[in-house]
Amino acid sequence: MTRLAAMDTREAALLLKGVREATLKGGRSPLAPRADIRESWQRMLRKGVDPDKDHRSGLLSPGEIERRRAASPLAELLPVLREGLVSRSAGADAVQHIMVVADAEGRVLWREGSAAVLRKADGHGFAPGADWAETTVGTNGVGTALVTRRPVQVHSAEHFVSSHHAWTCAGAPITDPRDGTLLGAVDVSGPLATMHPATLLLVGSVARLAEAELRNRHFADLARLRAVAAPILCRVGGRALAVDAHGWLAGVTGMPPVDRLALPASFRV
User: Fold this and answer.
1) Res. 82 pLDDT band, cuts 50 70 90
2) 6, 136, 169, 195: which has the fewest C-beta neighbours closer than 10 Å?
C-alpha cells in the first residue's frame, strides 16, 4: 500500500487493474495481490459474484433503518467514531472522504462527511440502508472487514467489482468486548486521490477506541450493579452471586469469585 501511495493515482489504478485482470483470468502479473485481497477475490469467485456487474440490493425502509439504529450498541459510539474520523480532519469537506458505520450484516446505518463524496456514494448505492456485505457487492472496506474480523484497506481495482474502482476505502470491525459479538464495521471511503497508507491504521485505532469505550461503560455498569447487590449478598445465607446479563460477576458470597459465568439461554423454570 505504501508503494501504491507513492505512485501517481492513475498509474496505481492501472497497475491494480492489470493485477486484477491477470488474477481473474488465472494468469500471472508482475505484482501479486495482497493476501487479504487475494483471499477475498477467491471467496467472490467461489460465490459466483460477477466482477463486471454492479451489484445492488434493495435499501432498507426508513423505519427499519431507525429500528436497527435504536437497537445497535454502535449508536452510543458515534461520538467516538466522529471525533476520530470526521471532526479531527480539519473539516470532512477539506479531505474529501466520508465515514460509514454498518451493522454486522453489512447494512449501512450511518454516514457522515464530505457532501460531495456523499453524493458520489449515493450514485454507487453506498447509501443508508444499503447492503454492503462482501457477498453482495464484492471486496470492500465494510464487508471484507466483517468477514475477516480485522482491518482492511481496499484501493481502486482491489475492489472485486469493477464499478467500485473509482473508490478507495479502509474499514475495521467493531466487536463487543463483553462477549466478542461482532457489532458491525466502521469505514472511511473517498475518491482515489484520498488514499493514504496511514488511513488503515487510523481506522483500526479508532475502532479500538470505540471498543474501549464499550468496555469502560461495561465496567461502570458492573460497578453500579455491585453497589446494589452488595447489601443483598450480605444478607443471603450460603452461596450466592450477582452477575449482569452477559454473565460478568458483580458480587459473590460463600464461594470463590470468577470473572464470568456461562448463563442459560433462558431463565424460565
Assistant:
1) very high
2) 6
User: Considering the domain boundaries, does residue 7 fall inside one?
Assistant: yes
State the CATH number of the domain containing residue 146.
3.30.450.40
Work out the number of other CB atoms within 10 angstroms of the CB of residue 128.
Answer: 18
What would you report as the CA-atom Rg of the chain, rounded to the nearest whole angstrom? 22
CA dist., res. 59 & res. 63, Å (int): 11
Q: Which domain holds residue 150?
A: 2-215
Question: What's the rounded Cα separation, in Å, for the pair 152 and 137?
Answer: 16
Q: What's the one-letter identity of residue 120?
A: K
Whether 188 is in a domain gets the answer yes
Q: Which pLDDT does position 90 carry in this prediction? A: 43
- For residue 91, pLDDT over 50 is answered with no
Number of domains in the chain: 1
**pTM score, two decimals?**
0.86
**Is 250 inside a domain boundary?**
no
Residue 242 in any domain: the answer is no
Rounded Cα distance between 218 and 205, Å, is 20
Average pLDDT, the chain: 89
Residue 84: CB partners within 8 Å, gap ≥ 6? 202, 205, 206, 209
Which parts of 152-235 are beta strand (E)?
A: 152-155, 167-175, 182-191
CB proximity list for 59: less than 8 A, separation 6 or greater: 127, 128, 129, 130
SS3 assignment, position 20? helix
